[in-house]
Amino acid sequence: MPYQDAITALADPTRRVIIDRLRAGALPVGAIAAGMTISRPAVSQHLRVLSDAGLLKVTPQGNRRLYAIAPEGVDELRRYLDTLWDDALAAFAQAATEKAREKDNA
Fold first, then answer.
1. pLDDT tens digits, residue range 34-54?
2. What is the rounded CA–CA span in Å between residue 84 and residue 50?
3. Rounded to a whole number, what is the distance in angstroms from the first to the last CA of the chain?
């Protein structure tokens, strides 16, 4: 899945809460939904969006499903964010070089 899908999915604060809950490991929907202010079916819909975006893997276990963070989906998003960071550092280096030249020419 493209990183754009992951960014769109993570734009929703409820989905970020779900991802945070899954950081410690796989959980069934009931455990994910526990204590949330939305219904369990709404949590399931959010899980579907996160899964469709490639951020979650779903593993059937008996009559329930376990949801876990999909490392490959997160890795694609991380690679994209790394390019943004690289671009920001390059722009900072360019600005610092230009500032140093201006100072030397003054």
1. 999 999 999 999 999 999 999
2. 23
3. 51
The parent domain of residue 79 ranges over 3-105
In one-letter notation, the amino acid at residue 97 is T
Neighbour-count burial for 53-83, b at 16+ CB within 10 Å, e otherwise: bbbbeeeeeeeebbbebbeebbebbeeeeee
- Contact between 50 and 9 (Cβ < 8 Å): yes
Return d(Cα 71, Cα 68) in angstroms, integer: 9
Q: What is the pLDDT of residues 5-20, one digit of tens each?
A: 999 999 999 999 999 9
Query: How many independent structural domains does the chain possess?
Result: 1
CB 93 within 8 A of CB 47: no
Three-class DSSP category at 24: coil
Domain CATH for 8: 1.10.10.10
For residue 45, count other CB atoms closer than 10 A to its CB.
Answer: 13
Cα–Cα distance between 86 and 14 in angstroms, integer? 29
